[in-house]
Amino acid sequence: MQRPQPLADFLACLAASLKAAAEPGSPTALAVDRAFDRLATPGTAATPRPDRAPATQWLAPAFAAAKRGAVAPDRGAAANLASAFAAIAPGLAWQARTDRRSSDPNFPNAHANAVIVGAGGLEERSDVRIGASLLAPHTEYPDHSHPPEEVYIALSSGMWRQNDGPWRAPGPGGLIYNPPNIVHAMLSDAAPLLAIWTLPMSAPSTRPTGQAHG
Fold first, then answer.
1. pLDDT tens across 80-130, in order?
2. Beta bridge partners of 123
3. What angle do helix axes 75-88 and 59-67 make, rounded to 10 degrees?
4. Which of 13, 41, 96, 148 is within CB 3.0–4.6 Å of 84 for a Cys-Cys bond?
């Protein structure tokens, strides 16, 4: 089975960007290796119903910022990733999470998540889950946790926090590794935050179809 070329191109760019930025032998690099070893065998192609949550109005400016460059060790790979993602983003089901508690009354309109690989994405499979998170400017994605470990690659500016630690800004092309079950959150600044997350699953996801991990 072969993947559709736009998805294959995106996954190749994602692998290159993650492996260029991850320190060899680190938990981040090992998680990336676990995910992409599994992705060597394609899953089942799918066609999700494209949904457009209100926050997707911020996709275009987020992509524009991402394509201007990145601070990852391989600048070219990170810039290529933004272009490859922009090619598949319109076909994704962008949805607001309904199970995240936030004190911001506008939160449902200020964020969106989309599954790329996994239930509800462009490729159905249960051993790896890849998706994207988008935040409107000045939006906090509240504390949450999940059993699978997770690697984010930031495509724009923004900040991440783990437990009660300080906010950390990896910069476009930078990586964030979340160990299993750690509490974490995201925060955008004056620009929209756009990031891609990769989770090598230890067991099939229990989330409803179409619900992202972000």
1. 888 999 999 999 999 987 777 777 778 889 999 999 999 999 999 999 999
2. 45, 117
3. 150
4. 13
